[in-house]
Amino acid sequence: MDPKSTDNGMDPETVMSMLEESGSAQTRRIYLRHGAGEPVFGVSYGELNRLAKKIKTDHALAVDLWATGNHDARELAAKIVDKDRVTKALARRWLADTDNYVSMGSVAGVVANSPHARELSDEWRDQSREWTAAAGWLLVAYCAERSDVFSGDDLGLMLQQIETEIHDRANRVRHEMNQALIAIALRDEDLRKQAIDAAGRIGTVMVDHGRTGCKTPDAVSYINKTVAYRARRAARNR
Question: How much is the pTM?
Fold first, then answer.
């Protein structure tokens, strides 16, 4: 790791020391239970957000922090990386490094705000590696309501693929396909009807969440609740 200062004058070693000092045994146990691999300090997301706000965007520092292999450092890296400077090569390298759904989700979040969301989603969704395919479908969930990324026809075809394949895909891929279905339903009324009909035919989506309290939501219930919430919010804003 290069000891020199980065974009904002903060060097990687200083940040790693701050992360280590901010970690707690309790939070570390939670992260490990959710699949985070060693090394991990157990820095709360509140503290990570506070530190990210202090650092702001620092692409060079983000790259250095990710390279440490430390879970907390990688989560911070995803928060401070310059999304416009994220290349496809960097995104692929970071995703290849992931071995848990938390890190996978952070990489997908970075890519969703980069210029490469559509291309990498198309590249990743049908891959055999669980975390790669999961990231591809999570990108659909993140970007389904953005017409600059996916067209309505694109999403309609994805609904057909989800219905056909979801029960046969890897564990976390099933979860993210279900998330994608929900997000597609929120794009417009026509896609919502298609998604709800598909969800009815799919039935219950079984996902093993390990030793966590996480659950994969029932798609139809979640869609209806979200639509109702948005309607109430719109009425208040009027």
Answer: 0.93
